Amino acid sequence: VQRMQTDPLIYIGQAFNLFLIAQKGDDLYLVDQHAAHERILFNELKTNKQVQTLLVPLAFDVAPDVDAYLSQNLDVYVNLGIKLEKGKERLTWRLLSVPSLMRNIETDVVEFVREQTGSSTEVEKGLYAIVSCHKAIKQGDEVDRTTGEELVRQVFRLEDPVCPHGRTFVIRLSKKELMEAVGRIV
Question: Fewer beta carbons under 10 A from the terminal one: N or C of the chain?
């Protein structure tokens, strides 16, 4: 285990436009590129609170229960860097600003807000999971070497490599397991 920490991380490449492959010591790692990137973005959303004001606010209607929730819990969204404002019509709201990492997916943010009446923890986790999922590298995306290396490096810095939806995204195969799989004596 001690040696594991000193062994260099060697990025090998990508398989099936889904898995990033890396070697560290006598272990080979397969990393689900989408889930890994999703987790890294999720963590970044929690720490990066840079806000961007929309040039044109997005107006949207909500159900009465969501309207009541927003009227009483605007601080839940303000604390996440999302500024909402009650519109002139009874059940209308406007999205005024979002965290910079949520740029270009404002409609997804609105759809989330329109359906959410949970606790601040539920709102934060649900919103960040949706945003990170939409912005993450997808299955089928080709990843260049620099991006793959950086993603794998960031994965190895994570304490708990689990995506925001709870899935593990790293598979480890030891050299011994691979040797045994092809009938080599270890």
Answer: N
Strands 83-86, 51-61: pairing is unpaired
What is the full per-residue pLDDT of the chain (186 aa) written as tens digits?
A: 344 467 899 999 999 999 999 999 999 999 999 999 999 999 988 888 789 999 999 999 999 999 999 999 999 999 998 999 999 988 999 999 999 888 888 999 999 999 988 899 999 999 988 888 888 999 999 999 999 999 999 999 998 888 888 889 999 999 999 999 999 876
Cα-trace Rg, the chain: 21
Residue 101 makes CB contacts below 8 A (sequence gap 6+) with: 41, 44, 45, 48, 50, 131, 135
Contacts of 155 (CB under 8 A, 6+ apart): 31, 36, 39, 40, 161, 169, 170
Distance from C-alpha of 143 to C-alpha of 151, rounded to nearest angstrom: 10
Are 148 and 11 spatial neighbours (Cβ–Cβ below 8 Å)? Answer: yes
